[in-house]
Amino acid sequence: MTHASSGTYGGDVTVSSKGLPEWLDPVVSAVETIEPKQLSRFLPPESGAGRQSAVLILFGEGERGPELLLMERASSLRSHAGQPSFPGGALDPEDGDPAGDGPLRAALREAEEETGLDPTGVQIFGVLPKLYIPVSGFVVTPVLAWWREPTPVGVVDPAETARVFTVPVAHLTDTAYRVTSVHPRGHEGPAFLVDEALVWGFTAGLIDRILHYAGWELPWDRTKQVPLDWRA
Questions:
Q1: Whole-model pTM?
Q2: Which end of the chain is flanked by fewer CB atoms within 10 Å, N or C?
Q3: How far is CA 80 from the centre of its chain?
Q4: Which residue, among 69, 66, 86, has the nearest Cα to 25 in the 3D structure?
């Protein structure tokens, strides 16, 4: 699967699953077959309402094996303060068509702005169906990529980002770090204990579904609960 179009990064935004490490094969297969309702019960409004956005789900390979790139939002932000997430954000006009390659460019652009990531070393290999976050009204396109040529990353703007870090896939599949988050309003969802932080909400839901459909998920104790702060 390969296609390219004119873009801001080197002239092209390309989607290709060629040359990926073998351990990513289950993820590539899952991306090709997964249906929107298998990811979330919250799907974009049929009316077309919602603010178009994208996140970059970037797989790399570090000293601790396969890993994912995450960032932690600054505690001073009005929304999702202190919450670990994938790099990403709303589409800008220069990103292009929201129904086309706009989300791909947005995911790369936001990752560069937030973490200093060099997009030229990133190989996009798949795009998941658009999902919806009712609380914020965002329509989110998850963009999956391989960190083909790793470059240094870190906090670009401390006012927006507290830290940038990677987490091993083996840590995410380890049942000792899997819990159920419980929101004060009663909502429950999958969550992960990562580097003294709790990954929950939309980000944890995506990770949970990717692990499940890639066949990497191990049976875990869903009764182990972690209550969320009332401000969450």
A1: 0.91
A2: N
A3: 15
A4: 66
Distance, in Å, from the CA atom of 114 to the CA atom of 68, rounded to the nearest integer, reads: 15
HSE, side-chain direction, 13 A CA sphere, residue 150 = 14
* Model confidence band, residue 11 (pLDDT cutoffs 50, 70, 90): very low
CA–CA dist 70, 64 (Å, integer):
15
Using the predicted structure, report yes or no on whether residue 191 has a pLDDT greater than 60.
Answer: yes
Please give the structure tokens belonging to residue 5.
């179009």
C-beta separation of 124 from 15 below 8 A: yes
Range 59-78 average pLDDT: 86
Contacts of residue 196, Cβ cutoff 8 Å, sequence gap at least 6:
none
Give CA–CA dist 12/100, Å, rounded. Answer: 13
Helix (H) / strand (E) containing 181: strand 178-182
Distance CA(82)–CA(198), nearest Å, equals 10
